[in-house]
Design a protein that fits this description.
Largest sheet of chain B: none
Largest interface: A-B, 38 and 37 residues
Strand content of chain A: under 5%
Number of helices of chain A: 5
Oligomer: heterodimer
Shape of chain A: elongated
Number of strands of chain B: 0
């Protein structure tokens, strides 16, 4: 980062590249969090009840994963436009903590609960966790 | 009274001023708007993927559409309510913004889309693959358009003579 000047970043020198990256960031966020929401609703006994939580997760997991990859990739690109600001932003730091927690939770405890088909508490934790991540993202611009 | 004066009155109303000037309420409403997009916008996407036949093909369309409907409705209400609060609190900046105008037009088109495909897709147990695909494609285009226009609202620099014209209209 020592030799890196964000002013040379193409995203800071083009009218539409930054907002376009943000749009992909938001759409892929909706894809990963939305597919997880459908599984969490099923764990809570509602939503798509024609399939078990495990089968639903199996059918949607690839979309969740693609969403995760895209949202993290575009997030990293957005990060490069002003790295020092982000690193020093308390809401960004909180967001990264939540992201790490969320990813670990999703592929361990959450996955286990989904496979067993029982875990209303896990579903609630999952929904609260991902909603908190969105809040911490918005607050980056306000802290 | 023309539009400029109406939007000026909205922006100057008590709740709009309080929301705009609040260090906490404004970002909270914005976060709720985005959370609704994440949780329930994702369900719209999932429904469309089913209508396109790319996932959950062994679950009848009616189970996916019907099962998620109450949640998508709840999400839609939260999303639109928060969105209107945000736009209303800065009504004078929003209404002349072409991206905001296109966004509202697309949002109205979502309503038309729901009415048009109600009989042939959304109200059926198993709609024809062609109709389902058409409805899903249009829905995806509309929602991605709404999302993009929403983001671009923030980047519109506006017309330099706007404040003067608004002031004149409000007089």
């Amino acid at each position: 980062m020592l030799a890196y000047d964000p002013a040379t970043n193409p995203l800071n020198n083009n009218e539409w590249m930054f907002p376009l990256t943000e749009c992909i960031h938001i759409a892929s966020m909706a894809m990963c969090i939305g597919t997880i929401t459908a599984v969490d609703l099923r764990l809570l006994g509602t939503g798509i009840t024609g399939k078990s939580a495990g089968d639903l997760a199996r059918a949607t997991s690839i979309w969740t994963l693609v969403g995760f990859v895209l949202v993290i990739l575009t997030g990293m690109i957005i990060f490069t436009t002003d790295p020092v600001m982000y690193l020093n932003n308390v809401s960004f730091q909180f967001k990264m903590g939540l992201l790490l927690t969320g990813l670990v939770f999703h592929y361990t405890l959450h996955q286990k609960a989904v496979r067993s088909g029982r875990g209303a508490a896990v579903a609630v934790v999952s929904l609260v966790l991902w909603a908190s991540l969105v809040f911490s993202a918005i607050f980056i611009a306000f802290v | 009274m023309d539009f400029a004066a109406i939007f000026h009155a909205i922006q100057m109303s008590g709740w709009a001023t309080e929301l705009r000037e609040s260090a906490l309420a404004y970002p909270i409403v914005m976060s709720m708007h985005l959370t609704a997009i994440a949780l329930f916008g994702g369900l719209i996407l999932l429904t469309n993927l089913r209508l396109l036949g790319v996932l959950l093909r062994d679950v009848p369309v009616v189970n996916v559409v019907g099962g998620l409907r109450p949640w998508k409705r709840l999400g839609f209400v939260v999303m639109v309510t928060c969105g209107l609060l945000l736009a209303g609190s800065k009504a004078e900046q929003y209404y002349p913004n072409p991206y905001f105008q296109v966004k509202m037009l697309l949002l109205a088109s979502v309503g038309v889309h729901a009415l048009v495909f109600r009989k042939s897709v959304y109200g059926r147990t198993e709609p024809s693959a062609g109709n389902a695909r058409l409805a899903a494609c249009i829905s995806l285009v509309l929602w991605l358009g709404i999302l993009s226009m929403g983001r671009w609202i923030a980047y519109y620099e506006g017309d330099r003579n706007q404040p003067a014209r608004i002031a004149e209209a409000a007089r």
